Amino acid sequence: MMKALGYEKAHPLSAFALERIDVPEPRPRATDLLVEIRAVGINPGEAAIRRTRSAEPGGRIILGWEFSGVVVQAGAAVTGFAAGDRVMGTGDMTRDGAWAERLAVDHRVVVKIPDRLSFVDAASLPIGGLTAWEALFRDQDRLPPAVDRVLVVGSAGGVGSMATQLLKTRTPAFVIGTASRDASREWSTAMGADLVVDHSREVVGQLRDAGIDRVDLVLSTAGTTANLGWIAEVLRPFGHVCAIDLSGPLDTDPLAGKSLSLHAELVFSRLADGASQQAMLAELARETTEGRLRPIATTVLDGLTVPSMRRAHELVEAGRTIGKIVVASGS
C-alpha cells in the first residue's frame, strides 16, 4: 500500500474534499516505469477536472500528470531506464496520476534529467513545455509559413512562459505577450517578450499605439471564447489561432471573414506517439540545463498533503499565477 491524495465526487474549492488515502501500489505494465514521486507541477486543468469529474461508484480519482522523481522499477519491455534514474514526465489521464508516493507511467512520456536540474525545477517543465511546443511548432517543429509576429495571450502563466521562451530561443519571431499586472508584465519581459500589452484593456489600440498593425499567430492560453473577437481583429488574413482552453459553445464567425485557421491543443492527445513527446521532453531538459531555457517554478509548496494541495488550487483558481506552482513531496 501507499499514500495518495484522492477524492470521490466532483467538488468546488469551497467544499474541498481531497483526502490522504491508502491505495494499492500501482502494478507497472511491461512498457511502464514505476517512479517514486519527488515533485509535481500544478495545472489549471487538474482543478477543472476536480470540479467536474467524479469517480465510478466505490472508486476514487488521483490527479496529477506532471512530475519528477526517481525510477524504482522498469517494465520488461522498457529500454534506456534503470532503477535510480532521476526522471521527469507527464502521464495518461485515463490512469491514476502523480499525487501519490509512486506512479506507474509509460516510459515513452518520461525522460532522464541530469543531477544539476532539481526535482522542483524539472517538475515545472513538462506540461507547459510540451503544450507550448505542440501548439506553436506543428509543421515539422517549425512555425507555420510567414509567421513573424506571435501574440501570446496570458504570457505569464505556465504555458505562456514556456511559449515565450521557446519562440525566442528557436525562432526570429517578434513576440508580444499579454499581462494585466506589474508583476506579470515584468515576468513576461523576463521570459523574453519583446512587447507586453494589458489584456484587461483594449488590446487592438495598444498594439496600434506600439506600431503593430497585425500579427500572424495568436497562442491563447485563457479566455479564448470571450476574446475571440479582438483576436480575429489583430490577426492578418489567413493567420492562425491556437487555443489550449476551448470548451463549450464557440462563435467562430469572427474567424470566417479573414479565413483564419483555428486549432486546439491538448498535450495528452499524442500519447499513442509517445516517442515524439519523449524527444521534446529530452530537448526541454537539455536546453534548461544548458541555460537556454529557464525553469518556471515560482511558488513551491512543501509536502503532498491536503493543506498544500488546497493552497495550490486556491492559487490556480484565483487566475493570477505567474510561472508554475510546484508541490515538493518532501521525501
From TrEMBL:
Database matches in InterPro entries: ADH-like_N (IPR013154), ER (IPR020843), GroES-like_sf (IPR011032), NAD(P)-bd_dom_sf (IPR036291), Zinc-ADH_QOR/CCCR (IPR051603)
GO molecular function: oxidoreductase activity
SUPFAM superfamilies per record: GroES-like (SSF50129), NAD(P)-binding Rossmann-fold domains (SSF51735)
Keyword Iron included in the entry's annotation: no
Pfam families: ADH_N, ADH_zinc_N_2
Residues annotated as domain Enoyl reductase (ER): 11-327
Keywords: NADP
Gene3D superfamilies in the record: Medium-chain alcohol dehydrogenases, catalytic domain, NAD(P)-binding Rossmann-like Domain
Coiled-coil residues: none
Protein name: Zinc-binding alcohol dehydrogenase family protein
